[in-house]
Amino acid sequence: MTDSMAKLLKVGSLLLLLVLALLFPFIAGNSTYVTIAIFAFGFAAAATGWNVFSGYTGYIALGHAAYYGIGGYTLAILCQHWHIAGGWIPFLLVPLAGLVAAVFSVPLGAIALRTRRHTFVVVTIATFFILQLMSYNLRGLTNGSSGIDFPLITDWGINIPGISFADFYVLPFYYVALALTLVALAVSWFVRNSKFGLGLLAIRDDEDRALGLGVRTGPSKLFAFVISAFFAGAAGALLSYYIGGVQPTFTFDALFDVAIALMVFFGGIGTLAGPILGALVLESVQKYSATVFTQGGGGVYLIIYGALFLVVVLLLPQGVIPSLSILWNKYVLRRIEPTDAAEDTSAGTPGAGPVGDRLPRVNEGASA
Amino acid sequence: MSLILDAVITGILTGGVYALMASGLTLVFGVMDIINIAQGALVILGAYLSFVLQQQFHLDLFLGLVITLPAMFILGVIIYVLFIRPLKHDRTMLSILVTFAIALIIEGVLTIVFHTNTRQIQSPYVTQSFQIGDFYLSYIYVFGFLLSAVLLGALYLLLYRTKFGQGLRASMQNRTAAELIGINVDRVSAYTFGIGVALAAAGGMAFGATTAFVPGSHYDLISRLLAIIVFAGMGSLGGALIAAEAMLIVENVTAVVWSPVWSSTVFFVLLVAILILRPQGLLGKLEGRKQ
User: Which of A118, A254, A317 is closest, CB to CB, to B92?
Assistant: First the structure.
């Protein structure tokens, strides 16, 4: 297989995936499956954004539910104050909700990024709880624990013969979620291939050395943090609009913090496709199991989630995509040059050496 | 004025219980460099255990600790051996995720067994009270505080007067050097994790008797405990004591002079303020370059 052929194959299969994603609602045929896909893509966008910060810099942020919540609340409050009717206009405000979340993340991120490692994780968790408290307590703005409802959508203004309103209802949400994921993926790709992204990876490998080499670590980290907050906010706005309301308990959901980290770890942290794969698999499993295990007040579902998390972190610490691409490389090498295979694969094992050895790992994942 | 005095006294007494729970967390952090997010869930588990022993077997709350403390110690060692020890690289970050997963599993099991009804431990200590000056104080607050004082005192003796404690403090200062001089750091870590979890169980009994709880209460609890140890400076036991007292006093006084809904926000604002001024926390050491 020559290089150009491999490239063609790659572009072709990516295009095929895109066409499949575009046609999915018509293939699925059932609005229940489309609903699952809406959540899966909403989370895929948020996870991809999260990965731009946590995956590239190595700082694990466990408070992005705060920005998800800010996004949801922003859209709900805007719709209420501007008396926007249900329909297309709230979709146009989704990026604005993401921007508001991004604006909030500037001071919050700046404070959190004064610390490192575990203290950073703890501070991000604390910001989440502060904002959840705010959503309970700032009653004038958020309506306290009863939350705010979005305007009902009674008509999309488009009638396609043969498709009922109930079936059509989910379509706009699906395509907006898909578009959001693609934008997040494009941003992630762009960052990954820019000098800025290289600086972030240097921070992950050795922050002090990166600073010594002239990477402006402070502004770089903050900018990546703001990008990730934007996508969490936009996803929050979109999914809250689909759910139909915001409420402190489930719009500011502590489980979101773990869910998004689990998705990225599952797919492969620091890779391009990993977060999307993780979100599509895990969110589908979650929504499906929520419909199957209805007893025990969600207890079974929590146990499954926790156990899955343990399995991924303990057995697949690199994530599915890097693990698969290592296996694939081994297989290819064994086919081409049986004698050199053992030597080459050991050099390609992630985490085997410092910066130089670890960089290709990300590329491998990106190409998968 | 007497209301404020009342709030300060309640704050001091409950602060002791929080100091107990936070000391387990900060001890584990100091020795192993990991944050046990499951500490909150383990406190709630301890509360449920005491609840069951009291409700089903009519065992005295403090007598029940004779059963729950060793049981939770063993559970802690098992968690360490099964889930913490296998983490080889990037242990600090992965341990946060692993312990979060353990917290979810504990919450799930508790939800299945006890459902999401609000519970509170009932006992003569809770219902009976005595009078000091103008106000009444329930016995459980005083006994909970005394329990915390006794256990923290025992912890102090263990750390500073025994050979195990010497090994533990050596592991806190420098893990590699401790290994080099022949301390079995792995065993010390396992026991430390067990002690941390056992302290959570003791705290859980006092917490469950003074506060109503559900399986999901651990989110709120762990956020407070994390705030306490970050405020204190991670790994500082003395700092955790001061921070826990400060937090509960500030909360109780805020609830009286302003409003109960803002009580925990004020402490979080203090936390942010101290992080801006002193990122390493009240008594924490500035983090050096760790490789």
Answer: A118
In a domain, B99, yes or no: yes
Residue of B nearest to A114 (CA): B279
Yes or no, beta carbons of B275 and A123 under 8 Å apart: yes
Which of B223, B264, B289 should we substitute to test contact with A (largest number of A Cβ atoms within 10 Å)?
Answer: B223
**DSSP state string for A203-262:** HHH-HHHHHHTT--HHHHHHHHHHHHHHHHHHHHHHHHHHHTEE-HHHHS-HHHHHHHHH
Whether residue B97 and residue A299 make contact (CB cut-off 8 A), yes or no, is no
The answer to whether residue B286 is domain-embedded is no
Residues 6+ apart with CB under 8 A from A6: none
pLDDT tens digits, one per residue of A201-234:
888 888 888 888 888 888 999 999 999 999 999 9
Neighbours of B270 (CB within 10 A): 16
Chain B residues with CB-CB distance to A62 below 8 A: 96, 100
User: For A287-338, what is each residue's pLDDT tens digit?
Assistant: 777 777 666 567 787 888 888 888 888 877 777 778 777 888 888 888 776 5
Our count of domains for chain B comes to 1
pLDDT for A211 equals 87
In a domain, B291, yes or no: no
C-alpha B23/C-alpha B19 separation (Å) is 6
Report the pLDDT value the prediction gives residue A14, as an integer from 0 to 100: 85
Q: What are phi and psi of B286, to 5 degrees?
A: -65, 130
In this predicted structure, what is the pLDDT of residue A341?
Answer: 45
Q: Are strands A148-149 and B135-138 parallel, antiparallel or unpaired?
A: unpaired
Which one of B104, B230, B289 has the shortest CB-CB distance to A123? B230
Residue A250: what residue type?
F
A126–B227 CB contact, under 8 Å:
yes
Cβ-proximal residues to A93 (8 Å cutoff; 6+ apart), any chain: A75, A78, A79, A84, A237
How far A219 CA lies from chain B's nearest CA (Å)?
A: 17
Total CB pairs under 8 A between chain A and B: 137
Compute the residue count for chain B: 291
Q: Could B112 and A299 be called an inter-chain contact, meaning their C-beta atoms sit closer than 8 Å?
A: yes
What is the largest distance, in Å, between two alpha-carbon atoms of chain B? Answer: 59
pLDDT value of residue A349: 45
Give percent above pLDDT 70 in chain B: 97
For residue B229, list chain A residues with Cβ-Cβ distance below 8 A: 122
Rounded Cα–Cα distance for residues A46 and A50 (Å) = 6
- The phi-psi region of residue B184 (left if phi > 0; otherwise alpha if psi is between -120 and 50; otherwise beta) is beta
Domain boundaries, chain A: 30-301, 318-368
**CB–CB of B21/B185 below 8 Å?**
no
The Cα A198–Cα A213 span in angstroms is 12
Cβ(A312)–Cβ(B107) below 8 Å: no
Could you tell me the residue range of the domain that residue B28 belongs to? 2-277
Residue B288 belongs to a domain: no
Catalogue the E-assigned strands of chain A. 148-149, 245-246
Q: Is ipTM strictly over 0.90?
A: no
CB nearest to A265's CB, from B34, B97, B116? B97
Half-sphere exposure (Cβ direction) of A210: Cα atoms closer than 13 Å? 22
